[in-house]
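Bench notes, afternoon.
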Amino acid sequence: MKNDYREIAVNGKKELYKIERFVEEICDYHNINNEYFGNILLASTEAANILISVSGVKGETSLIVTFEKNQQGFYVQIRFVGQDISNEQEHFLEQEIRKHKLTKEIFIVKALADEVTISVKGESITLTFYVSSINYEKIAQ
């Protein structure tokens, strides 16, 4: 199985369509079925929305969306670009989750992805999708 690595930049909520197109191209290229495509698409856009919402809305928020495929599955990482999070905002994402302001969004992302990793400072979210056995599961049925 060949590894694949791709990356795009998204500037604010007005460019979230780029993530949708990015995920669609990747899933088409790797022949991912519609059910898993929906999970990847919704989890990726919700994770981007979460990061944009906690960015403080100080102008446009730049995000980098990175896709990597290896033998274990798909990895989608969404992270801030060139934004230094101060000590006051260091655990802002965690505080918002505890205040139940982002609970629904985090639940959706965690329910759709196989694994979710949020960085310590809350500046990136990594989604893991184990798609290597999708065809095996179809054959076994």
